[in-house]
Amino acid sequence: MKLVIVTGMSGAGKSIALKILEDLGYFCVDNLPIQLMPKFAEILTTPNSELKQVALGIDVRSGQALDGLEEQLNAMDKAGIDYEILFLDAQDDVLVKRYKETRRQHPLGGAGHIDVGIAKEREKISFLKMRATYILDTSKMLTRELKKELEQIFVDGKNFKNLYITVMSFGFKYGIPQDADLVFDVRFLPNPYYISGLKEKTGNDREVQEYVMNSPRAEEFLKKFTDLIQFLLPNYILEGKNQLVIAIGCTGGKHRSVTVANALYQVVKQDENYGVRIEHRDIEKDAITKAK
Questions:
Q1: Cα dist. 245→22, 98, 137 in Å?
Q2: 104 annotated binding-site participant
Q3: How far is residue 247's CA from residue 263's CA, in Å, rounded to a whole number?
Q4: Which residues, including other chains, have CB under 8 Å from residue 79's CB and lie 6 or more apart?
Q5: Is 267 annotated as a binding residue?
Q6: Is 59 annotated as belonging to a binding site?
Q7: 240 belongs to an annotated ligand binding site
Q8: Alpha-carbon gap, residue 289 to 10, rounded angstroms
Q9: Would you state the pLDDT for residue 207?
Q10: What region holds the RapZ-like N-terminal domain (predicted)?
Q11: Is 76 within 8 Å of 37 (Cβ atoms)?
Protein backbone atom coordinates (compact mmCIF):
# COMPACT_ATOMS: atom_id res chain seq x y z
CA MET A 1 0.00 0.00 0.00
CA LYS A 2 1.28 3.46 -0.93
CA LEU A 3 -0.14 6.44 0.98
CA VAL A 4 0.59 10.00 -0.15
CA ILE A 5 -0.54 13.04 1.82
CA VAL A 6 -0.99 15.97 -0.58
CA THR A 7 -0.74 19.30 1.17
CA GLY A 8 0.78 22.77 0.86
CA MET A 9 -0.26 26.34 0.22
CA SER A 10 -3.76 27.17 -0.96
CA GLY A 11 -3.49 28.14 -4.62
CA ALA A 12 -0.30 26.15 -5.21
CA GLY A 13 -2.06 23.40 -7.16
CA LYS A 14 -3.16 20.72 -4.68
CA SER A 15 -6.47 20.09 -6.46
CA ILE A 16 -4.67 19.73 -9.79
CA ALA A 17 -2.12 17.38 -8.22
CA LEU A 18 -4.88 15.18 -6.82
CA LYS A 19 -6.52 14.97 -10.25
CA ILE A 20 -3.19 14.02 -11.81
CA LEU A 21 -2.62 11.34 -9.17
CA GLU A 22 -6.13 10.04 -9.76
CA ASP A 23 -5.31 9.68 -13.46
CA LEU A 24 -2.17 7.79 -12.39
CA GLY A 25 -4.31 5.21 -10.60
CA TYR A 26 -4.46 6.62 -7.08
CA PHE A 27 -7.63 6.54 -5.00
CA CYS A 28 -7.93 10.18 -3.96
CA VAL A 29 -9.76 11.68 -1.00
CA ASP A 30 -9.74 15.45 -0.59
CA ASN A 31 -10.21 17.20 2.77
CA LEU A 32 -10.52 14.03 4.84
CA PRO A 33 -11.26 14.91 8.50
CA ILE A 34 -7.92 14.74 10.26
CA GLN A 35 -9.39 12.75 13.16
CA LEU A 36 -10.10 9.92 10.71
CA MET A 37 -6.60 9.71 9.27
CA PRO A 38 -5.19 6.96 11.54
CA LYS A 39 -8.33 4.86 11.17
CA PHE A 40 -8.33 5.34 7.41
CA ALA A 41 -4.65 4.37 7.20
CA GLU A 42 -5.34 1.32 9.37
CA ILE A 43 -8.07 0.19 6.96
CA LEU A 44 -5.66 0.59 4.05
CA THR A 45 -3.07 -1.65 5.69
CA THR A 46 -5.46 -4.54 6.28
CA PRO A 47 -4.57 -7.70 4.32
CA ASN A 48 -6.19 -8.07 0.89
CA SER A 49 -7.23 -4.40 0.78
CA GLU A 50 -8.22 -3.41 -2.74
CA LEU A 51 -6.76 0.05 -2.28
CA LYS A 52 -3.08 -0.13 -3.24
CA GLN A 53 -2.38 3.56 -3.95
CA VAL A 54 -4.09 6.32 -1.99
CA ALA A 55 -3.66 10.11 -1.94
CA LEU A 56 -5.18 12.25 0.81
CA GLY A 57 -5.63 16.01 0.34
CA ILE A 58 -5.18 17.92 3.60
CA ASP A 59 -4.87 21.69 4.10
CA VAL A 60 -6.04 24.64 6.20
CA ARG A 61 -9.67 23.90 5.36
CA SER A 62 -9.46 21.43 8.25
CA GLY A 63 -9.60 24.43 10.58
CA GLN A 64 -8.59 23.92 14.20
CA ALA A 65 -8.26 20.17 13.61
CA LEU A 66 -5.07 20.95 11.69
CA ASP A 67 -3.38 21.63 15.03
CA GLY A 68 -3.73 17.94 15.85
CA LEU A 69 -2.30 16.68 12.57
CA GLU A 70 1.28 16.42 13.77
CA GLU A 71 0.13 14.25 16.67
CA GLN A 72 -1.77 12.05 14.24
CA LEU A 73 1.29 11.72 12.01
CA ASN A 74 3.41 10.77 15.04
CA ALA A 75 0.83 8.11 15.93
CA MET A 76 1.03 6.72 12.40
CA ASP A 77 4.83 6.64 12.66
CA LYS A 78 4.62 4.65 15.91
CA ALA A 79 2.13 2.26 14.33
CA GLY A 80 4.57 1.61 11.49
CA ILE A 81 2.27 3.05 8.83
CA ASP A 82 4.34 4.20 5.87
CA TYR A 83 3.36 7.42 4.13
CA GLU A 84 4.88 10.20 2.05
CA ILE A 85 4.09 13.91 2.11
CA LEU A 86 3.88 15.91 -1.11
CA PHE A 87 4.05 19.63 -0.29
CA LEU A 88 3.07 22.09 -3.02
CA ASP A 89 4.35 25.63 -2.64
CA ALA A 90 4.54 28.86 -4.66
CA GLN A 91 5.89 32.37 -4.20
CA ASP A 92 3.61 34.77 -2.33
CA ASP A 93 3.17 37.14 -5.28
CA VAL A 94 2.19 34.20 -7.50
CA LEU A 95 -0.39 33.01 -4.97
CA VAL A 96 -1.86 36.51 -4.70
CA LYS A 97 -2.10 36.75 -8.48
CA ARG A 98 -3.83 33.37 -8.73
CA TYR A 99 -6.38 34.33 -6.10
CA LYS A 100 -7.13 37.60 -7.86
CA GLU A 101 -7.50 35.88 -11.22
CA THR A 102 -9.99 33.36 -9.83
CA ARG A 103 -11.66 35.96 -7.56
CA ARG A 104 -11.56 33.48 -4.71
CA GLN A 105 -11.17 34.35 -1.05
CA HIS A 106 -8.26 32.92 0.91
CA PRO A 107 -9.58 30.59 3.65
CA LEU A 108 -7.59 32.50 6.29
CA GLY A 109 -7.66 35.93 4.69
CA GLY A 110 -10.93 37.30 5.97
CA ALA A 111 -12.49 40.09 3.91
CA GLY A 112 -10.15 40.29 0.96
CA HIS A 113 -6.79 40.28 2.77
CA ILE A 114 -5.07 37.64 0.65
CA ASP A 115 -1.52 38.47 1.78
CA VAL A 116 -2.54 38.22 5.44
CA GLY A 117 -4.15 34.84 4.80
CA ILE A 118 -1.03 33.55 3.04
CA ALA A 119 1.19 34.60 5.95
CA LYS A 120 -1.09 32.87 8.46
CA GLU A 121 -1.24 29.74 6.36
CA ARG A 122 2.56 29.53 6.00
CA GLU A 123 2.87 29.64 9.77
CA LYS A 124 0.17 27.02 10.40
CA ILE A 125 1.51 24.45 7.94
CA SER A 126 5.25 25.05 8.38
CA PHE A 127 5.56 21.76 10.28
CA LEU A 128 4.24 19.89 7.22
CA LYS A 129 6.85 21.46 4.98
CA MET A 130 9.53 20.41 7.47
CA ARG A 131 8.28 16.81 7.32
CA ALA A 132 7.67 16.75 3.56
CA THR A 133 9.10 13.96 1.45
CA TYR A 134 8.76 16.05 -1.70
CA ILE A 135 8.48 19.82 -2.09
CA LEU A 136 7.37 21.20 -5.44
CA ASP A 137 7.39 24.93 -6.13
CA THR A 138 4.73 25.50 -8.80
CA SER A 139 5.39 29.24 -9.24
CA LYS A 140 6.53 28.78 -12.83
CA MET A 141 5.05 25.37 -13.60
CA LEU A 142 2.44 24.72 -16.25
CA THR A 143 -0.01 21.89 -15.59
CA ARG A 144 1.79 19.62 -18.04
CA GLU A 145 5.08 20.29 -16.25
CA LEU A 146 3.55 19.45 -12.87
CA LYS A 147 2.15 16.26 -14.40
CA LYS A 148 5.60 15.32 -15.68
CA GLU A 149 7.16 15.87 -12.25
CA LEU A 150 4.52 13.77 -10.49
CA GLU A 151 4.89 10.99 -13.04
CA GLN A 152 8.65 10.92 -12.46
CA ILE A 153 8.16 10.69 -8.71
CA PHE A 154 5.17 8.36 -8.37
CA VAL A 155 5.33 6.29 -11.57
CA ASP A 156 8.95 6.16 -12.71
CA GLY A 157 10.29 6.14 -9.15
CA LYS A 158 13.12 8.51 -10.04
CA ASN A 159 15.28 10.00 -7.33
CA PHE A 160 13.83 13.35 -6.34
CA LYS A 161 15.91 16.15 -4.88
CA ASN A 162 13.38 18.96 -4.48
CA LEU A 163 14.86 21.35 -7.05
CA TYR A 164 12.98 22.72 -10.06
CA ILE A 165 15.05 24.86 -12.42
CA THR A 166 13.93 27.50 -14.90
CA VAL A 167 16.53 28.43 -17.51
CA MET A 168 15.45 31.83 -18.88
CA SER A 169 16.80 34.02 -21.67
CA PHE A 170 16.03 37.75 -21.58
CA GLY A 171 17.01 41.12 -23.03
CA PHE A 172 18.68 43.68 -20.77
CA LYS A 173 16.85 46.50 -22.56
CA TYR A 174 13.58 45.00 -21.29
CA GLY A 175 14.80 44.69 -17.70
CA ILE A 176 16.32 41.96 -15.56
CA PRO A 177 13.75 39.31 -14.48
CA GLN A 178 12.65 40.14 -10.94
CA ASP A 179 12.50 36.50 -9.87
CA ALA A 180 15.99 35.59 -11.13
CA ASP A 181 18.30 33.87 -8.64
CA LEU A 182 21.35 33.91 -10.91
CA VAL A 183 21.92 36.45 -13.70
CA PHE A 184 24.54 36.05 -16.43
CA ASP A 185 25.50 38.61 -19.08
CA VAL A 186 26.51 37.12 -22.47
CA ARG A 187 26.73 40.38 -24.40
CA PHE A 188 30.47 39.75 -24.90
CA LEU A 189 29.67 36.98 -27.42
CA PRO A 190 29.45 37.70 -31.20
CA ASN A 191 26.17 39.44 -32.03
CA PRO A 192 24.19 38.04 -35.01
CA TYR A 193 22.02 41.17 -35.02
CA TYR A 194 24.52 42.90 -37.33
CA ILE A 195 24.86 39.98 -39.74
CA SER A 196 22.74 39.93 -42.88
CA GLY A 197 20.54 36.85 -42.93
CA LEU A 198 20.77 36.29 -39.17
CA LYS A 199 19.18 39.45 -37.79
CA GLU A 200 15.62 38.19 -38.19
CA LYS A 201 16.43 34.69 -36.95
CA THR A 202 16.69 33.69 -33.26
CA GLY A 203 18.86 31.59 -31.03
CA ASN A 204 16.52 28.69 -31.75
CA ASP A 205 17.90 28.59 -35.32
CA ARG A 206 20.99 26.50 -36.04
CA GLU A 207 22.65 29.25 -38.10
CA VAL A 208 22.52 31.70 -35.20
CA GLN A 209 23.75 29.09 -32.72
CA GLU A 210 26.73 28.28 -34.92
CA TYR A 211 27.62 31.96 -35.35
CA VAL A 212 27.43 32.72 -31.63
CA MET A 213 29.38 29.66 -30.50
CA ASN A 214 31.90 29.45 -33.36
CA SER A 215 34.97 30.65 -31.46
CA PRO A 216 37.38 29.24 -28.85
CA ARG A 217 36.28 31.99 -26.44
CA ALA A 218 32.61 30.98 -26.70
CA GLU A 219 33.43 27.30 -26.30
CA GLU A 220 35.56 27.98 -23.22
CA PHE A 221 32.84 30.16 -21.71
CA LEU A 222 30.15 27.52 -22.23
CA LYS A 223 32.32 24.83 -20.63
CA LYS A 224 33.12 26.96 -17.57
CA PHE A 225 29.53 28.19 -17.35
CA THR A 226 28.01 24.70 -17.37
CA ASP A 227 30.66 23.47 -14.92
CA LEU A 228 29.71 26.29 -12.53
CA ILE A 229 26.00 25.50 -12.73
CA GLN A 230 26.58 21.78 -12.24
CA PHE A 231 28.66 22.58 -9.16
CA LEU A 232 26.02 24.94 -7.73
CA LEU A 233 22.90 22.77 -8.15
CA PRO A 234 23.63 20.07 -5.55
CA ASN A 235 24.83 22.75 -3.13
CA TYR A 236 21.57 24.67 -3.50
CA ILE A 237 19.76 21.44 -2.66
CA LEU A 238 21.82 21.06 0.51
CA GLU A 239 20.71 24.57 1.51
CA GLY A 240 17.06 23.57 1.09
CA LYS A 241 16.35 25.53 -2.10
CA ASN A 242 13.56 24.03 -4.22
CA GLN A 243 13.14 26.63 -6.98
CA LEU A 244 15.94 28.17 -9.04
CA VAL A 245 15.72 30.68 -11.88
CA ILE A 246 18.87 31.04 -14.01
CA ALA A 247 18.56 34.16 -16.18
CA ILE A 248 20.86 34.65 -19.18
CA GLY A 249 20.76 38.05 -20.85
CA CYS A 250 21.93 39.76 -24.00
CA THR A 251 20.83 43.11 -25.44
CA GLY A 252 17.46 42.15 -26.93
CA GLY A 253 16.96 38.60 -25.66
CA LYS A 254 16.70 37.15 -29.16
CA HIS A 255 20.06 35.72 -30.29
CA ARG A 256 22.95 35.23 -27.84
CA SER A 257 21.00 34.69 -24.63
CA VAL A 258 18.64 32.25 -26.36
CA THR A 259 21.59 30.31 -27.78
CA VAL A 260 23.34 29.99 -24.41
CA ALA A 261 20.09 29.24 -22.53
CA ASN A 262 19.33 26.43 -24.97
CA ALA A 263 22.83 25.00 -24.53
CA LEU A 264 22.58 25.09 -20.73
CA TYR A 265 19.12 23.54 -20.82
CA GLN A 266 20.39 20.62 -22.88
CA VAL A 267 23.10 19.95 -20.28
CA VAL A 268 20.94 20.30 -17.15
CA LYS A 269 18.02 18.21 -18.44
CA GLN A 270 20.32 15.20 -18.79
CA ASP A 271 20.43 14.96 -14.99
CA GLU A 272 17.20 13.22 -14.00
CA ASN A 273 17.57 14.44 -10.41
CA TYR A 274 16.28 17.89 -11.39
CA GLY A 275 13.12 19.19 -12.93
CA VAL A 276 13.94 21.77 -15.61
CA ARG A 277 12.09 24.03 -18.03
CA ILE A 278 13.23 26.66 -20.50
CA GLU A 279 11.68 30.07 -21.12
CA HIS A 280 12.66 32.68 -23.71
CA ARG A 281 11.06 35.76 -22.18
CA ASP A 282 11.87 38.40 -24.79
CA ILE A 283 12.49 36.41 -27.96
CA GLU A 284 9.53 37.99 -29.80
CA LYS A 285 9.65 41.50 -28.37
CA ASP A 286 11.78 43.05 -31.12
CA ALA A 287 9.20 41.99 -33.69
CA ILE A 288 6.34 43.33 -31.55
CA THR A 289 8.12 46.67 -31.04
CA LYS A 290 8.71 47.05 -34.76
CA ALA A 291 5.08 46.23 -35.53
CA LYS A 292 3.98 49.14 -33.38
A1: 30, 20, 12
A2: no
A3: 13
A4: 38, 41, 42
A5: no
A6: yes
A7: no
A8: 38
A9: 95
A10: 1-155
A11: yes
Q: Is 161 annotated as a binding residue?
A: no
pLDDT at 175: 94
Residues 6+ apart with CB under 8 A from 183: 176, 177, 247, 248, 249
| 12 annotated ligand binder | yes
**Residue 206 marked ligand-binding:** no
**Total residues found in the chain within this entry:** 292
Query: What's the pLDDT at 258?
Result: 97
**Would you say 60 is a known binding-site residue?**
yes
Question: Could you tell me the domains of the chain?
Answer: 2-154 (3.40.50.300), 164-291 (no CATH)
Residue 140 near residue 166 (C-beta atoms within 8 A): yes
215 is in an annotated binding site: no
The answer to whether 204 and 284 are in contact (CB under 8 A) is: no
| CA triple 161-260-196, angle to 5 deg | 160
Is 11 assigned a ligand-binding role in the annotation? yes
pTM for the full model? 0.68
d(CA 271, CA 32): 37
pLDDT for position 111: 64
| Cα three-residue angle 63-129-124, rounded to 5 degrees | 30
Over the chain (292 residues), the average pLDDT of each successive run of 10 is: 88 92 90 79 74 84 73 82 89 86 72 79 87 88 88 73 86 93 96 91 95 93 96 86 90 96 94 85 76 48
CB 123, CB 100: distance < 8 Å: no
